[in-house]
Design a protein that fits this description.
By secondary structure, the protein is α+β, with helices and mostly antiparallel strands. The strands form nine sheets. A seven-stranded mixed beta sheet has the order 2-3-1-4-5-11-6, with helices on both faces. Strands 18-17-23-14-15-22 form a six-stranded antiparallel beta sheet. Strands 25, 26, 27, 28 and 29 form a five-stranded antiparallel beta sheet that branches. Strand 12 and strand 13 form a beta hairpin. The longest helix has 18 residues. The radius of gyration is 29 Å and the shape is globular. Bound molecules: guanosine-5'-diphosphate. Guanosine-5'-diphosphate binds next to helix 1.
Length: 688
């Protein structure tokens, strides 16, 4: 079956916004105008379609990245949901990786808010072309020009207006389309859906003309021929100008600005036009680079063409109530038919694609084939996890593996009844499949289940989901920083296991060397013996025993990281040695060796970037220092100062409130995991 929508008519977009800027409302209106929603629901009534999970409606934040397909003017728009909370930046990065363009949404009163800054910078990093939509123009205090100014100053963006509002607040009556130099007046009445084309009001003509000049000059600045035409006073044709503007947006030379009031249905259709007109198609984005499976330094290219070998990236896993596990996949090249077998290059396993679904806001559509540039949901995959590459078996490729945040906060949870304990584990398994930054484990000593995540809110939401989606009430302990342990010296240890088990003797002897590995390198194992000394199947048992023993450290029982193990000697006895004996010997050896190698506790340190006006700089730096923060640099970003530092996570609890109070609400910050470092003081249960 051939494709129904030409690749040039596909838009894979995300909407990036600070919480409360109106992302849910805008998405809902987009889907409504695109003909999907037949009954318009308001967010506060809790019928927003993009929100997968009940709790999101209550909290008013959108956490998961799902994808919804809709149509506008013969174009297929796939909206990939990007989460808005700072705790979920891993999800934000993951969605930025698979979309081709984005709408950056701002509240016309609040302007550029801290989270918009963080996401904006990530979009810069991934080179995502953007248009901006200044929402809530109907609010008292809405200020279009101020938001543009803030974008320039705080985001170092180059905003170019393609619209300007006619009035604001209660008097937000229409828009001026700077490209066509026409006014669009909103028709009176409740819905405000209709817009009437009109001439630009006399009093705004001068300002509109100035913006038009700015637009034209920005659009053609790189095109000598057009520039010459323009300087000679010749008119530039509408189509030529439009494609020049499109080029400017796609190549990230500037950000085209639009505005409206989604809540009042004003400007949303024009925003849909802008998405189609100015944001790139997968074809515009062009070649996607991946790596060779055998050799990660070798770059492989994939073109967004249907007759290329199939390749795609699994970017989100969700458990659907009816269909079960769904793997949302972005197809970069080739096509995928239901019934195809594909290769998962991360796990090295084959997966069969039995069904393909396209997710619309209110229905699932079963499709037979999907093509380059599409986003599909695949049910029934066995091994695929978030971030994995799926591809043609004969043409393996790996797309850049997404780096996920380390889980640095632990919390103990218990099901309220014994009967629910098994259900709890089942639910936790599902949640780890969906979310690579979430982990759980059984703590053998306390018999508790420990969940780990990237932030306090992350775990709070997990506990909430357990209740709502899985019907399991749990008792949760206090969130704790996830400490680790490591060793600081190189030691050698010899261990001989010789014991009587029933009528048989078990024998194994190993000599292991333990040494500190570079921070972040994790566990490594190196066998320096020969098969005559220790046969290979016993070597694997030694490695397994070692790996398991690093789960519990010698100082306070935290997992041990960044240690290298060398198997340098030992012996076996053909009659009395087996794998179990070697595993136990290795395990005993490691425990003893760790104790001898001057173990220390490590704590997670975060890179904290604080942005403040100059007046508060001194106080902010002093406060960070009192939190054991190391100041790494202070730089100027437009009118603001940016302080970069690393601070132990345990010192960052309550920072939001503190920063707000020392800067009178003018400071903002973001933090990302940096590394583990030796702990000096442990906040919650004692000192080291
Ligand atoms: P999100 O957190 O970005 O998804 O924001 P929501 O769409 O949930 O909107 C947050 C609040 O702002 C809700 O109470 C909306 O009704 C309100 N809101 C959204 N868009 C507009 C708008 O254009 N004008 C006004 N006045 N309020 C809006």
């Amino acid at each position: 079956m051939p494709r129904t929508v030409d690749i040039g008519r596909v838009r894979n977009i995300g909407i990036m916004a600070h919480i409360d800027a109106g992302k849910t409302t805008t998405t809902e209106r987009i889907l409504f105008f695109a003909g999907v929603i037949h009954r318009m629901g308001e967010v506060h009534e809790g019928t927003a379609v993009m929100d997968y999970m009940e709790q999101e409606r209550e909290r008013g934040i959108t956490i998961t990245s799902a994808a919804t397909t809709c149509f506008w003017r013969d174009y297929q728009i796939n909206i990939i949901d990007t989460p808005g909370h700072v705790d979920f930046t891993a999800e934000v990065q993951r969605s930025l990786r698979v979309l081709d363009g984005a709408v950056a949404l701002f509240d016309a009163v609040a302007g550029v808010e801290p989270q918009s800054e963080t996401v904006w910078r990530q979009a810069d990093e991934y080179n995502v072309p953007r248009i901006a939509y200044i929402n809530k123009m109907d609010r008292m205090g809405a200020d279009f020009k101020r938001v543009i100014e803030m974008m320039r100053e705080q985001l170092a963006a180059r905003p170019i207006a393609l619209q300007m509002p006619i009035g604001s607040g209660d008097e937000f009556e229409g828009l001026i389309d700077i490209f066509r130099m026409k006014a669009f007046l909103f028709k009176d009445g409740q819905s405000g859906v209709e817009t009437i084309e009109a001439e630009i009001p006399e009093n705004l003509l001068k300002e509109a003309s100035e913006l038009r000049t700015e637009l034209v000059e920005a659009a053609i600045e790189n095109d000598d021929e057009l520039m010459e035409q323009y300087l000679n006073g010749e008119e530039i044709g509408e189509d030529v100008l439009k494609s020049a503007i499109r080029q400017g947006v796609i190549t990230n030379r500037f950000t085209a600005i639009f505005c409206g009031s989604s809540f009042k249905n004003k400007g949303v259709q024009l925003l849909l036009d802008a998405i189609v007109d100015y944001l790139p198609s997968p074809e515009d984005v062009g070649v996607i680079e991946g790596f060779d499976v055998e050799d990660e330094s070798k770059v492989l290219k994939r073109m967004p063409l249907d007759d290329e070998p199939f390749s795609g990236l699994a970017f989100k896993i969700l458990t659907d109530q009816f269909v079960g596990k769904l793997v949302f996949t972005r197809i970069y090249s080739g096509s995928l038919k239901s019934g195809d077998a594909v290769l998962n290059t991360i796990s090295g396993k084959k997966e069969r694609v039995n069904r393909l679904l396209k997710m619309h806001a209110n229905r699932r559509e079963e499709i037979q084939e999907a093509f380059a540039g599409d986003i599909v949901a695949i049910p029934g995959l066995r091994v695929t996890r978030t971030g994995d590459t799926l591809c043609d078996q004969k043409n393996p490729v790996i797309f850049e593996k997404i780096q996920f945040a380390e889980p640095v906060i632990n919390q103990s949870i218990e099901a309220r009844t014994l009967a629910e304990q098994d259900k709890l584990i089942e639910a936790l398994i599902k949640l780890t499949e969906e979310d690579p930054t979430f982990r759980y484990r059984n703590d053998e000593e306390s018999g508790q289940v420990i969940i780990s995540g990237v932030g306090e809110l992350h775990l709070e939401i997990i506990v909430d989901r357990l209740k709502r989606e899985f019907g399991i009430s749990t008792k949760a302990g206090k969130p704790q920083v996830a400490y680790r342990e490591t060793i600081t010296e190189t030691v050698t240890h010899e261990e001989t296991l010789e014991r009587q088990v029933g009528a048989k003797t078990q024998f194994a002897r190993v000599i292991l060397e333990l040494f500190p590995n570079e921070r972040g390198k994790g566990f490594s194992f190196d066998n320096q013996t020969t098969a005559e000394i220790i046969p290979l199947q016993f070597v694997s048992a030694v490695e397994e025993g070692a790996r398991e023993s690093f789960g519990v450290g010698a100082v306070a029982g935290y997992p041990v990281i960044d240690v290298g193990v060398r198997l340098i000697g030992g012996s076996f006895d053909p009659a009395n040695s087996n794998e179990l004996a070697f595993k136990i010997a290795s395990s005993l050896a490691i425990k003893e060796a760790i104790r001898k190698a001057s173990p220390v506790v490590l704590e997670p340190a975060f890179k904290v970037e604080v942005t403040v006006p100059n007046d508060y700089l001194g106080d902010v730096v002093a406060d960070l220092s009192s939190r054991r923060g190391k100041i790494e640099g202070i730089s100027q970003r437009n009118i603001l100062q940016v302080v970069t530092s690393t601070v132990p996570l345990s010192e960052m609890f309550g920072y939001v409130t503190q920063l707000r109070s020392i800067t009178q609400g003018r400071g903002s910050y973001n933090m990302t995991f940096s590394h583990y470092e030796p702990a000096i003081v442990k906040a919650s249960n004692g000192y080291f």
